[in-house]
Each structure stands twice: as structure tokens, then as C-alpha cells.
Write a structure and sequence with these properties.
Blueprint lengths: L1 E4 L1 H23 L5 H5 L6 E12 L5 E13 L4 E5 L2 E6 L2 E7 L2 E5 L4 E12 L5 E10 L4 E11 L3 E11 L4 E12 L4 E11 L4 E4 L3 E7 L2 E8 L1 E5 L4 E12 L4 E11 L4 E4 L3 E8 L2 E7 L1 E5 L4 E12 L4 E11 L4 E13 L2 E12 L3 E4 L7 E4 L3 E5 L2 E5 L6
Length: 399
């Protein structure tokens, strides 16, 4: 490697060495009685420059970095330049990829290592993403920048805080770890974890560690999700939760679990491509549970569709509905089931089978009006069809 410094710096170094050798030669020719005292004095080998540009290239002449500093003091013994108010760029294939600035810095080992401190700002040239911190370190050949302490990653839609960041210049990849927290610009979404990878080009946050996502309405948490592995798209606000994924919602009061849950926070939908379980709790004595190999739900319309060994059970009347696929409206309690339909109920006892069924899952509805004490009304009939036979079942209370 070689370090190239602006012409004034090179010229000064060029003049400095002959002067040093000349002074040494003169000393040898004119030795005096106080020779020991003079020889003990070390010459000042530090060189100071103002408004200087430093840069480094590889052996093929490709530019690696360039930096402008308000002041630089170069130590020839330590091969280190201390710089003030540095700003510059790191390059890949002679193209600037990362802009940097700081309050102070050191260029060590004749340019093989760079340390910056104080209000460090690293900006990705292509995406405009910014990483701020207290310290920055770069080493030749690693194509990686390390930013430490009080990390803040700034994205148009999100702000990410952490203890440490590792920026890969080639891959446009930022690894942040240590108390990671990402908050949306609208402050309606928060992500927390121990380590998150930020893919700048793809606008993705990735984590193979447990992560938590909160949907916020002011200070109120309206939805919360977690998984042992997660992906979050910053542009679309779609979260993919894998390995023991879980989404807990406030309205409807529902908990969804599975190994692959895709939660779209903009469209307010959830899609499960693997077996899932849904628990809906309307009241203390009313719980509805759904299980299937896959499914999806629209939280705005409160309609859920499940398929593949689909089963819905209701706590109130101990009913169980199984079919190849089931569509259920949480708000109205209406369902449509198709394929190998089996409906069983213990209060009162009922067993129905067919190719298709529709009706309301819970057997009794409660209607409360002013001056009334919870009168019960009949539910809509459950109609089962199959083999050219139509069965209509009107649930009755056992009391």
C-alpha cells in the first residue's frame, strides 16, 4: 500500500528529510565539548499542515479513501497523522460509496487504519441512509466501517438506535447490535431486539434473534408481535415472523401463533403459509379457537379464512366445526365451511356432516337493551348440504 498526500504535504516531506540529514552531517563535522548534551536532544519529527487533503490508493492505483482536514499533524516515528474536522469519502471501484465526517481523527500506519471520534456521521451515497455515533474505525482491505457508542441510524421512514454498528461498504449492509430499537417516523411502530441487520439497498431489517414489534396509537399498544427470526420491509411495512411467531391484537382481541406469520401493518392483514393457531376471546366465558395448515385474515373486515385440516371450536356451546376450508366473520359470527364438513355440538347435542355448511358458530346470541335483562334470541340456522340432502339445524339451549 502507499499513501498519497496533497502536493504541499509531499513537498514539505521532500524538503524535511534533506534538512535533517544536513543537520546530522554538520553535527558530525563540528563536535564540541558538550557533544553528549547535544546528542541527547531529539529533533522534532512532527510535521503540521493546515487545510490538507489526504488520500490512499491500493497497489493498482485504485482510490480507497480521500479526506480533507482543517489541520493535520504527522508523526514520522509513529507513522500517524492526527487530523481535525475531517470529512471525506470511502471508495469502491473508484466510486464514492460512503461519506464521513467527524470532529477529530487519526490516520494510522501510513493510512492503513483510520479512527474518527466526536459527532461521527457516515452517509451511504446511494441510499442516503445515515449512521451517527461517537467513534468510527476503518482498516485497509476489510471494506468494513465500525461505528461505536450512541449509534443512531437515520432512514426517511425510521430511526434506529443501538450500541454498535458494522457497515459493509461493498454489500451496503449495516449490522447494529446492543439494545437495538427502531422507531418509525410517525412514531406508530417500534421494533426492538439484540441484533438487527439493515440491508440498505433492499430496505429490509433482518434478525435471526428474538425480536419484538409494537403497533402504536399514541402511547397505546394496539398490536404486538414477536418471533425468533424476523424480516421487516421498511418501504411496505410488512413484517415476516418465523419460528414461534406470535401476533397479539387489541381489536379484535386475538392472538395468532405460527412458524410463518406475515403481518402487513398498512393493509392490516395477516397471512400464514404454515400451520397456525388463532385464539379469539370476546368475553371471559367465550373463547373461539381456529387451527389450520394455513390461513389469512383481514383485520379491517375481521374476516378470516383458514384451509387444510381447518378446525374451529367454540367454548360457549362446546361446538366443533372441521372442514377442508373455513371462512369466518369475527364480527357477525357467520361462517362458511367447504369440503368434508363435520359439525358437532354438546350443548345441545348435535352431529352434522356434509360437503358444505353455513351459519353462525355460536348457538345463542345475547341481546341487551335498556330495561331488559339479557334476553336470548335464536341464532341463525346452520345449513349443511351434501349428497343431495339439505339439513337445517336450529340450535336450542339445553336449559
Amino acid at each position: 500500500m502507499k499513501i498519497r498526500i496533497w502536493s504541499r504535504f509531499l513537498f514539505a516531506l521532500f524538503l524535511a528529510f534533506p534538512l535533517m540529514f544536513g543537520a546530522a552531517s554538520c553535527d558530525r563535522r563540528s563536535q564540541s565539548s558538550d557533544e553528549n548534551a547535544e546528542s541527547s536532544e531529539e529533533p522534532n519529527r512532527d510535521l503540521s499542515f493546515n487545510n490538507i487533503t489526504l488520500e490512499q490508493s491500493d497497489d493498482d492505483g485504485n482510490l480507497l479513501w480521500r479526506m480533507v482536514a482543517g489541520k493535520a499533524v504527522y508523526s514520522q516515528d509513529e507513522q500517524t497523522a492526527v487530523i481535525e474536522n475531517p470529512s471525506g469519502e470511502f471508495f469502491q471501484d473508484d466510486q464514492a460509496t460512503l461519506k464521513i465526517q467527524a470532529t477529530r481523527g487519526e490516520v494510522r500506519d501510513d493510512g492503513d487504519r483510520i479512527f474518527l471520534t466526536g459527532n461521527v456521521v457516515a452517509t451511504d451515497v446511494e441510499t442516503g441512509a445515515i449512521v451517527r455515533g461517537d467513534e468510527l474505525e476503518w482498516r485497509t482491505g476489510q471494506e468494513v466501517v465500525i461505528v461505536r457508542n450512541n449509534i443512531i441510524g437515520v432512514h426517511p421512514d425510521f430511526t434506529i438506535a443501538a450500541n454498535r454498528a458494522r457497515v459493509s461498504i461493498v454489500d451496503q449492509r449495516v449490522e447494529v447490535n446492543g439494545n437495538v430499537a427502531a422507531i418509525s417516523a410517525d412514531e406508530d411502530l417500534k421494533l426492538q431486539g439484540s441484533e438487527i441487520v439493515w440491508l440498505l439497498e433492499d430496505d429490509l431489517l433482518l434478525s435471526d434473534r428474538p425480536i419484538q414489534i409494537q403497533q402504536l396509537d399514541g402511547d397505546e399498544v394496539t398490536g404486538q408481535a414477536q418471533g425468533e427470526r424476523a424480516e421487516f420491509n421498511l418501504a411496505t411495512e410488512v413484517a415476516l415472523l418465523e419460528n414461534n411467531g406470535r401476533v397479539v391484537l387489541k381489536d379484535p382481541a386475538m392472538r395468532l401463533t405460527g412458524d410463518s406469520l406475515q403481518w402487513d401493518l398498512v393493509q392490516n392483514t395477516i397471512v400464514a403459509s404454515q400451520p397456525l393457531r388463532i385464539i379469539y376471546r370476546e368475553e371471559e366465558d367465550e373463547t373461539v379457537t381456529l387451527r389450520a395448515n394455513q390461513g389469512n385474515g383481514n383485520l379491517n373486515t375481521q374476516i378470516f379464512s383458514i384451509a387444510g385440516d381447518a378446525v374451529i371450536t367454540s367454548q360457549r356451546n362446546q361446538s366443533r366445526l372441521s372442514a377442508n376450508q373455513i371462512r369466518w366473520n369475527v364480527d357477525t359470527d357467520d361462517f362458511v365451511a367447504e369440503g368434508n364438513v363435520v359439525y358437532r355440538q354438546t350443548d345441545p347435542v348435535a352431529n352434522l356432516q356434509g360437503d358444505r355448511a353455513e351459519g353462525q358458530l355460536r348457538s345463542l346470541q345475547s341481546e341487551r337493551a335498556e330495561g331488559q335483562a339479557g334476553n336470548r334470541t335464536r341464532a341463525r340456522p346452520i345449513i349443511v348440504t351434501g349428497n343431495q340432502v339439505v339439513t337445517e339445524f336450529i340450535p336450542e339451549s339445553s336449559n
